[in-house]
UniProtKB/TrEMBL annotation, chains A, B:
HAMAP family: ProA. Keywords: Amino-acid biosynthesis, Cytoplasm, NADP, Oxidoreductase, Proline biosynthesis. The gene is proA. It comes from Candidatus Methanoplasma termitum. PANTHER family: DELTA-1-PYRROLINE-5-CARBOXYLATE SYNTHASE (PTHR11063:SF8), GLUTAMATE SEMIALDEHYDE DEHYDROGENASE (PTHR11063). It is found in: Cytoplasm. Its EC number is 1.2.1.41. The keyword Oxidoreductase applies. Signal peptide: none annotated. It catalyses: L-glutamate 5-semialdehyde + phosphate + NADP(+) = L-glutamyl 5-phosphate + NADPH + H(+). One of its GO terms (molecular function) is NADP binding. Residues 3-280 form the Aldehyde dehydrogenase domain. GO terms for cellular component: cytoplasm. This is Gamma-glutamyl phosphate reductase. It is an enzyme of class 1 (oxidoreductase).
Length: 441, 441
């Protein structure tokens, strides 16, 4: 058994202990973790400086992207952000043991459905070291064990953060073995094979990275690969509102998955809306890729080029937008369901029936009405802390908070009931009355 | 593109229509399906008679088990059962569009989480033809498209049931293409590869069968492989209660996954409990496989043999039970978490603290106190109809009803809000107030 395999098996056992910790113990440990970050600022910054200096050298040679180096950097403000993040998790309700439903099956025979941790999680992430405190605090509060594998470019930062945090937690009676930091590249292929031990994998990184994980493991993966988001501007849209929302959806942070990539415009509003929209795009440095019909309505400009078929399935993550004209809302919905990535799609219209149709028919995790696609985010949704965004269609969808780390167990409390009394002639009948009763013994 | 691949792609498109049907239309279609079964009893019985006669000939040659032939048989009473099952589904609340949560992010910016169908399901099942009306009615009510692949031994029965039901539904304005029946064996390997199109697979059949499906697809699988259930009889158990519950858990229907396979007995009650328990087992034809310590307390009998290491990880599905002595509840819990299949495990004790410890620490879908393991079942839980039992730890766990066919989407309703107003200096603050508001436009 490799080192990592045996550490993860130990963590899985420790997960059973973690699942039974009371809220007070967990919050004390979280407080200790926040304090430890504050006490170890210097150590963290020193370790991060090593990573950043190595990464900058690699970036100079072209082996690393500048944006990756940027994401890698930790400063005092970012450490304060990590501390605040942990404090937010302290404030979240403890989900473990929460009663989800209760049903009276018969006299003195009550069935409870109660929340419990999923168990053993694996988190594989690229350069951002702030994933460590974020996920570690969510896992601790939700009673899940977790194994981390970060990018090698962040290895010093991850190691010092992991050590500082888990040592602080251990002093507050949290089993240290529940948390594992993997450091070698080979460990990834190792953990992808551990479908008997790891209950859920959470990859955080680029499209290609997440896709690679999804394609190479039997473990359920919580995540999203592509983020091809649409805005449909209906003929009953408020034009100024449509301009502002579309511009924000594209330029507020174009590198991320919830930025809009394709704009669909109703034929009947295109003449009024499109020239103004494209002018705004050009002023803000956005390249426009237009279909033939839209092109007729757009002033000629070097920033406006013809769209090809590939553009309708492209995630630019950049200051580029594709534009197509559609006849009506039905064509827009079909287009989105066909070309989208079921992430976030918005309609701009004042017509409530069309809003409802869009909500019913668009098969995406986040369906927005008259608001920027950029709102699709755990922090903005009020989840306190985000595990990730999921385009899965089972378990969790959209921005995922701590609730995505929970499952339930059924607890049946009886006093000797046997099934044979409920079958055959003279069978006792089940009552099946929904109760509003918290689990208690 | 193969025939099945193109039919499933069509079904996936039809799923988007199915997702938008109103409750009245769906209930009308369900009523028509129930009536059609009643009107076509003769046709169904004739088709089934062909399958049964073929199967009986195969069973004579030893190519099919007798229990499979038994499960295959449909009679008038079973058709009535199918009709009643569909009527139960009519009574279930329509889950589509249900508001799960609502949060005020800011003035005129409300985030709703609403239930929606998962989309395209694949159901692969062995001989029981009653799976067709059961799953078809649940899928229709929950707005999911579904492709079926039944065992070849039931092909005539499945075909006539599928045709009668989907034709009736189509007359009630339900898109017929949403439902697919696959008939050739090669279709299975075809659909296992369709992870871009099928959102969830539900295999129903033997342990080996489910395991095979789980090991050969990237599609999420809702199901359970092994059912290794335990009962722990604590030293503070009521002995008569322990005897009755354990006997029921073993003999009431030993061939199924929720029958008990291993009995753990606290050392301090073993002398009083075990001789009586084993006597009952022997009287009821149960073979007992005992560990060394238990053996000393059990009267010698040809039905009592020594357990081997393999027995602690065995699912007998038969009149066989393994028995081990444990020192205390902690040893019992460790044993269950190590050897169990996280399906259903019970404790027999009057001590509430030990009950609570067992509930907290046993990592199983169903954790029972003083009741038979045989209660772990969708019908007994009051779910109306059962999709299956899941030992997965994401999405659905334990007996799964219609709720297991649902996911949610986030709907954000705004009036032109843009993210840039909520970042940087003078950023607007999110309100994040939980509302108790149904989704409305």
């Amino acid at each position: 058994m490799s080192n990592v395999t045996s550490e993860i098996k130990k963590a899985k056992s420790a997960a059973l202990v973690l699942a039974t910790l009371d809220t007070e113990t967990k919050n004390k440990a979280l407080k200790a973790m926040a304090d430890a970050l504050d006490d170890n600022r210097k150590k963290i910054l020193e370790a991060n400086a090593k990573d950043v200096s190595n990464a900058e050298q690699m970036a100079k040679k072209g082996d690393l992207s500048d944006s990756l180096v940027k994401r890698l950097k930790v400063n005092d403000e970012k450490i304060t952000g990590m501390i605040d993040g942990i404090k937010d998790v302290i404030k979240l309700d403890d989900p473990v043991g929460e009663t989800m439903s209760s049903v009276k099956l018969d006299d003195d025979l009550i069935l409870y459905q109660i929340k419990c941790p999923i168990g053993m999680l694996g988190v594989i992430f690229e350069s951002r070291p702030d994933v460590v405190p974020q996920i570690l605090s969510l896992c601790l509060k939700s009673g899940n064990a977790v194994a981390f594998k970060g990018g090698s470019e962040a290895k010093h930062s991850n190691k010092v953060l992991f050590d500082v945090l888990t040592e602080a937690a251990a002093e507050a009676a949290v089993p240290k073995e529940a948390f594992v930091l993997m450091e070698s590249r080979e460990d990834i292929s190792e953990i992808l094979k551990m479908d008997g031990d790891i209950d859920l994998l959470i990859p955080r990184g680029s499209y290609e990275f997440v896709k690679y994980i999804q394609n190479n493991t039997k473990i359920p993966v919580l995540g999203h690969s592509a983020g091809i988001c649409h805005i449909y501007v209906d003929d009953e849209a408020d034009v100024d509102l449509a301009l502002a929302v579309t511009l924000d959806s594209k330029i507020q942070y174009p590198a991320v998955c919830n930025a809009v990539e394709t704009l669909l415009v109703n034929w009947d509003i295109a003449e009024e809306f499109l020239p103004r929209m494209v002018k705004l795009f050009i002023e803000n440095g956005v390249e426009v890729r237009s279909d033939k019909r839209a092109k007729r309505l757009i002033p000629k400009d070097p920033k406006v080029i013809d769209a090809t078929d590939e553009d309708w399935d492209a995630e630019y993550n950049d200051l580029i937008i594709s534009i197509a004209i559609v006849e009506d809302i039905e064509e827009a919905i079909d287009f989105i369901n066909k070309h989208g990535s079921h992430h976030t799609d918005a309609i701009i219209t004042g017509n409530k029936e069309k809003q409802a149709e869009f909500v019913r028919s668009v098969d995406s995790a986040d369906v927005f009405i008259n608001a920027s696609t950029r709102f699709a985010d755990g922090f903005r949704y009020g989840k306190g802390a985000e595990v990730g965004i999921s385009t899965n269609k089972i378990h969790s969808r959209g921005p995922v908070g701590m609730e995505g780390l929970m499952i339930y167990k059924y607890v049946l409390v009886g006093n000797g009931q046997v099934v044979k009394d409920y079958v055959g002639k003279n069978a006792k009948k089940y009552i099946h009355k929904k109760l509003d009763k918290e689990f208690s013994l």
